[in-house]
């Protein structure tokens, strides 16, 4: 029995499913989750001493790789000064000023502790600002686990085949309307029926929780126009794409200005951080300056701010950081496509910058229904093969591959070779 197996057998007795977040349980890939002991740069080492090239990067935060020296140093320095005060600190001002300076649509921002909290709060702000209740989301997009967002959600919900979570009263989802990603008509139809009641549209500007699905030309622009027509707010959930695609996230990459944005992951540098922000006239409604209440004991935690500040400053100050990482991603995923074609396999690869995924389906994937045609057994076989070859992928067809700047060209070339060998021996 491996140490991971032993730990997992203990974990399931005291933690639901043995994990603190469902997708970590490796349920859909039929493997024992690898318990990680340490990580450095592009590599993680499990409790049995196996090392992996890490394509999960803690689900996005580790864009610079694990334990970047500057981030670690900033955290250790902050720890010396105290772990948490529950009081205002200078680093929170620095973080807010930095985010506002890097993302033009952000005029004010509030720190929270997770992406879920950021989304929950942004939706409350939109409802408070418009006086309306309904929210439009897209099937397959995942916006964290707050009640009203657990409708046709992606990520672990989609992986677990849980259409909509139990324990969520109908009253909490009554105002959540679901549209089809990349289908503006499905949005127009909802607005034709409920336009005057819709507070906001929330969208992942690049969907990365049903696998990676790119916005088709005109889709995001169309959402902007519809929201303007009906006086609804456009919320970009950039928990994954924020500081991933560009310093100004997907909104900077595509040139669309949302009214509110949610962040997480990268802005915490590996520590628990979320944030929401945007138009001043909306954010000024947030308590204590307005009547929309939102709070958090550890919001803006000084150690978490130190990690996030160190990471964001490195992303800002490293010349050509995004050009280089996005180019590396383009080359890698295009090479994956080439290997697939040479092997005569019909699978699909969607990618943008350092984000991408392989769908085990013959048809192009531009929405939830198409993503769901993927053969999850074939994915599981691929996942297990790659894991045994030291390549740590997200344990679900409906997640993304995240490249980090710590990966070397040689390492990525070896992964392509491993992928090629997988295809040669694969029956699927
Ligand atoms: P958290 O509450 O997990 O920090 O963020 C929720 C969230 C919100 N919005 C988007 C676009 C997200 O991708 C997420 C969380 N992402 C998943 C990975 N697909 C987190 C991994 C997990 O649930 O363990």
Q: Give the oligomer, counting copies of the same chain as homo and different chains as hetero.
A: single chain
Overall pLDDT level: 97
Biggest β-sheet description: 7 strands, mixed
Structural class determined from secondary elements: alpha/beta
Write down the domain tally.
2
Number of helices: 15
Order of helices and strands: HEEEHHEHEHHEHEHEHEEHHHEEHHEEH
Give the C-alpha Rg. 21 Å
Strand content: 5-15%
CATH class of the largest domain: Alpha Beta
Distance between the termini: 29 Å
Shape: globular
User: How would you write the strand order of the largest sheet?
Assistant: 4-10-9-8-7-5-6
Name the CATH architecture of the largest domain: 3-Layer(aba) Sandwich
Approximate helicity band: 25-40%
CATH T-level fold name of the largest domain: Aspartate Aminotransferase, domain 2
What does this structure look like?
The protein is an alpha/beta fold. The protein folds into 2 domains: 3-67 and 319-427, Aspartate Aminotransferase, domain 1; 69-317, Type I PLP-dependent aspartate aminotransferase-like (Major domain) (Aspartate Aminotransferase, domain 2, 3-Layer(aba) Sandwich). Helix content is 39%, strand content 14%. The chain has a 7-stranded mixed β-sheet with strand order 4-10-9-8-7-5-6, sandwiched between helices. Strands 1-2-3-13 form a 4-stranded mixed β-sheet. The protein has a 3-stranded antiparallel β-sheet with strand order 11-12-14, covered by helices on one side. The chain is globular, with a radius of gyration of 21 Å. The mean pLDDT is 97.
């Amino acid at each position: 029995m491996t140490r991971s197996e032993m730990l997992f057998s203990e974990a399931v007795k005291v933690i639901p499913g043995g994990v603190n977040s469902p997708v970590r349980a490796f349920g859909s890939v039929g493997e024992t989750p690898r318990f990680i002991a340490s990580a450095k740069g592009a590599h993680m080492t499990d409790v049995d001493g196996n090392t992996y090239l890490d394509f999960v990067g803690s689900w996005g935060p580790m864009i610079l790789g694990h334990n970047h020296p500057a981030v670690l140093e900033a955290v250790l320095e902050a720890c010396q000064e105290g772990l948490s005060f529950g009081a205002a600190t200078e680093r929170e001002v620095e973080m807010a000023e930095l985010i506002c300076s890097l993302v033009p649509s952000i005029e004010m921002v509030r720190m929270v502790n997770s992406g879920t909290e950021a989304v929950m709060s942004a939706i409350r702000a939109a409802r408070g600002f418009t006086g309306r209740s309904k929210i439009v989301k897209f099937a397959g997009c995942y916006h964290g686990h707050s009640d009203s967002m657990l409708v046709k959600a992606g990520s672990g919900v989609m992986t677990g085949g849980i259409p909509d979570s139990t324990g969520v009263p109908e009253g909490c989802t009554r105002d959540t309307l679901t549209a089809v990603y990349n289908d503006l008509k499905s949005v127009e139809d909802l607005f034709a029926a409920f336009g005057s009641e819709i507070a906001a549209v929330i969208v992942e500007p690049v969907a990365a929780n049903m696998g990676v699905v790119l916005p088709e030309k005109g889709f995001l622009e169309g959402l902007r126009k519809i929201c303007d027509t009906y006086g609804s707010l456009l919320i970009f959930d950039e928990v994954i794409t924020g500081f991933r695609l560009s310093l100004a996230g997907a909104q900077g990459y595509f040139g669309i200005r949302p009214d509110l944005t949610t962040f997480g992951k990268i802005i915490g540098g590996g520590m628990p951080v979320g944030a929401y922000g945007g138009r001043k006239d909306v954010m000024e409604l947030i308590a204590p300056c307005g009547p929309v209440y939102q709070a958090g004991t550890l919001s803006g935690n000084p150690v978490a701010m130190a990690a996030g500040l160190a990471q964001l400053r490195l992303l800002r100050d490293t010349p050509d950081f995004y050009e280089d990482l996005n180019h590396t991603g383009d080359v890698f995923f295009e090479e994956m496509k080439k290997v697939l074609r040479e092997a005569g396999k019909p699978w699909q690869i969607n990618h943008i910058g350092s984000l991408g995924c392989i769908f085990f389906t013959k048809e192009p994937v531009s929405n939830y229904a198409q993503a769901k045609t993927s053969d999850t057994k074939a994915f599981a076989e691929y996942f297990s093969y790659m894991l045994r070859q030291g390549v740590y992928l997200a344990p679900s067809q409906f997640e993304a591959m995240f490249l980090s700047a710590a990966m070397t060209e040689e390492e990525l070339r070896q992964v392509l070779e491993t992928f090629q060998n997988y295809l040669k021996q694969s029956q699927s």
